[in-house]
Write a structure and sequence with these properties.
Length: 505
């Protein structure tokens, strides 16, 4: 629980920045400018998936390094991590070149009417350079995660987010004050500057806590990388499929309906996307311990980790997801300053999908850390097929809401299956697992929904106070009733320690 909250803190900074930056850019950039940037960013996600599973292989090797039986084995582990850092640099360079090569064909297929191909090339150029910095930061994050230094990982992420967000806002405001319409160009350039700053910062942290893992540039020793080839290949497929699940909807919207059609989906998914990071951050902290459990063969610890990780993911997700679903139109209207029906529909479907995700995220990461990747790949492949098939039919009919519905259906089915698989790890029982996860949550959830729906109708609407106060009141009611009626005995002890300022692992 402690590590999960720390691991989310960096993404909390990202979520807060996005809360202000997304509507700011939506107001200050044209639809085509903003849509092109979102599309280029989504396109950059795809080459990042082809990292040969290095992130998880590096994290696994660093985590197991302390438990390896001999000095020779530990030296081989360090050599692998060192060469993986070099491979990250090569992947960043090749991925950046790939983005530049596709910029021409994409500029002709995006149905752009106001942006010339030359500008599209420059947008993709700076996106490609930023991709290289993101790859180097990913290596640093993998090392720190394997060391379980989640505090340092998220300090580095928060630093990069702050530099990027504040800089982008300043340059766009400055250009607007001068009646200059090049805000997108300046924002893309400053995004790269923030990436460079983040890379330098995380390299300095590694130099301080684990200099033997410091990144270096050059040609990697491929024979060293082969020691983790099978796990890396499986991890690559897992990462690729997860990325497709999240990236496919905006890509399909762009290809089928043009870049402007991406905006309602992008706006509607922003809050649920931030919530999804809670699922992944609370689950990722289980990966290093699951990797170590392979050497210690401790099935009881694995079972408790899955149960506890799933329980806390659902507890943390349930209240916010209910508020988003209950108040979706009001939240979107207050956030954007105008009604956006399509974005509100996307918000509801995506919030429900992310709530379903909380059921299986812990199970996926524990199975992943134990190298049980075959069932993971089967389930994720099914999710991708279901989503693409539904989206291909629903997007032309309903646009962004159709993409969100396809996302919800695939996510719900897939993550429920992961929950069942995780419940059976270590000889566990599905019924006992579900009872542990959901005990005491019905009354807090019902009260949260009732308070949100009732108060937003009766509170004064000036300055959106009814939306803000309804959301806060519903969240407080959920927390108070959960603490009073829904907590397990061990959870009460943990909360008491937290309130007493003695929050320890």
């Amino acid at each position: 629980m402690r590590d999960g909250l720390i691991h989310y803190s960096g993404y909390l900074a990202q979520s807060i920045a996005g809360f202000f930056l997304i509507p700011f850019l939506n107001r200050n950039l044209s639809n085509e400018d903003y849509g092109l940037w979102v599309f280029a960013t989504a396109a950059a996600v795809l080459p990042a998936l082809f990292d040969f599973g290095l992130f998880w292989a590096v994290s696994r090797c660093v985590a197991q390094g302390r438990s390896l039986p001999t000095e020779v084995a530990r030296a081989e582990s360090v050599a692998f991590v060192h060469n993986a850092g070099r491979a990250y640099g090569i992947i960043g360079l090749l991925g950046g070149i790939g983005l530049l090569l596709v910029s021409g064909p994409l500029s002709r297929s995006l149905k752009l009417t106001q942006i010339p191909p030359r500008i599209v090339f420059w947008v993709f150029l700076f996106t490609a350079l930023n991709f290289i910095t993101d790859e180097l930061m990913a290596y640093g994050a993998a090392v720190l995660q394997g060391l379980r230094r989640f505090d340092l990982t998220n300090i580095a992420r928060a630093f990069a987010v702050i530099v990027r967000s504040v800089g982008i806002a300043v340059v766009v405001i400055h250009l607007r004050s001068m009646n200059n319409n090049n805000g997108m160009h300046a924002a893309v350039i400053w995004n790269l500057i923030g990436g460079i700053a983040g890379t330098v910062f995380i390299a300095a942290l590694i130099q301080r806590v684990a200099p033997e893992y410091q990144i270096s540039f050059g040609i990697p020793d491929w024979s060293s990388l082969k020691t983790q080839l099978s796990f890396g290949a499986a991890s690559l497929c897992v990462t690729l499929l997860l990325g497709i699940v999240w990236s496919a909807p905006p890509m399909l919207l762009g290809f089928l309906l043009g870049p402007a059609a991406i905006i309602p989906y992008h706006l509607g998914k922003s809050f649920p996307n931030s919530l999804s990071w809670i699922n992944y951050r609370t689950a990722e902290v289980l990966f290093p311990s699951a990797s170590e459990s392979v050497l210690t063969n401790d099935s009881a610890t694995v079972r408790r980790a899955v149960e506890s990780g799933t329980r806390w993911a659902v507890v943390l997700m349930l209240g916010p997801a209910i508020v988003l679903m209950a108040l979706a139109p009001q939240i979107i209207g207050l956030w954007l300053g105008h009604d956006a029906i399509a974005s509100a529909q996307v918000l509801r479907w995506m919030a429900a999908a992310v709530l379903a995700e909380s059921l299986g995220a812990a199970s996926l990461h524990v199975m992943w850390g134990q190298n049980r990747t075959r069932p993971i790949l089967v389930v994720l492949s099914g999710m991708v097929i279901v989503q693409l098939a539904l989206a291909w039919k629903l997007v032309p009919l309903w646009g962004a809401p159709g993409a969100a519905i396809a996302f919800f259906v695939s996510m719900s089915v897939g993550w429920i299956i992961f929950a069942i698989l995780g419940a059976m790890l270590g000889g566990g029982n599905v019924r006992e697992f579900l009872a542990h996860v959901f005990t005491g949550l019905l009354i807090p959830a019902s009260a949260c929904a009732g308070v949100a729906v009732a108060l937003v109708q009766v509170l004064p609407i000036e300055f959106g106070s009814n939306v803000v106060l309804s959301a806060i009141a519903a969240g407080l009611v959920y927390l108070m009733i959960f603490f009073a009626l829904g907590t397990h005995p061990e959870e009460k002890r943990l909360i008491d320690q937290l309130l007493a300022g003695k929050f320890k692992n």
